[in-house]
Amino acid sequence: MAESGYPDVLALDGVGVRLGGRQVLCDVTFSLGKGEFTGIIGQNGAGKTTLLRVILGLLEPSGGRVLIDGEPLGGKNKASIGYVPQKLVIDPDMPLRARDVVSLGLDGYKLGFGFPSRQRRELVERALADVGAAGYADARVGELSGGEQQRVLIAHALISRPKLLLLDEPLANLDLRSEQEIVAVLGKLAREHEISVLLSAHDMNPLLGVMDKIVYIAGGRAASGATHEVVTSEGLTALYGHPVEVVRVHGRILVVAGD
């Protein structure tokens, strides 16, 4: 239960996942309150995407439970979750504009059917403006840069006005400037729109300025809390099961294997 007295937007209680007879995740427990920004951090193959699939209801956990607003994850409350995949795979020659991709976010959404065209346009314009993509609304998506495509994907997920926004490695393959801009957009959505953001990444450093909590995954287990509480030499040594050293240099955090 959140400090406000209202249920957490998302709560995982002892979630475990077995795939092909192998324990991929074990006893994962954490929560997100309204408008909180949380990073899921771990190396490639640590189980970050698997965890997102569980929260989306695409993968049944072998143990534990997922709660949305205090209720078990189900068809009804899945509508309050927005999802942004890692990248948009599209033929550059396809005549699909940014606004078209965003508009598709209404299709299948419970309010999307029967929208008057004017209201539909207004919703699309608002979502594009919220992520700073209004300037290229009519550009072909295949011709946009990686950072611009990410903004369009976020707007696509945002148009249904979700309470919880899940993003799978949205910073992968972006240049430094685009990376910083996307993080700023997501931080603004969390602060000003009170959307709970859960973002997976292999590097925590771009998120340090906006992250309220961290979920650090290693060896199928997870540690969660404030960054300064979780990312310590002692804490990560226990999580990894072998010596790990955490070094802070010029505002960045480096995690290196110990002797």
TrEMBL record:
List UniProt keywords, sorted A-Z: ATP-binding, Nucleotide-binding, Transport
Q: List, for all copies, the residue spans of the domain called ABC transporter.
A: 10-244
Pfam families from the entry? ABC_tran
Query: Which Gene Ontology molecular function entries are recorded, alphabetically?
Result: ATP binding; ATP hydrolysis activity
Is Oxidoreductase set as a keyword in this record? no
Q: Which PANTHER family did the record assign?
A: METAL TRANSPORT SYSTEM ATP-BINDING PROTEIN TM_0124-RELATED
Quote the protein name from its UniProt record. Metal ABC transporter ATP-binding protein
Species name:
Trebonia kvetii
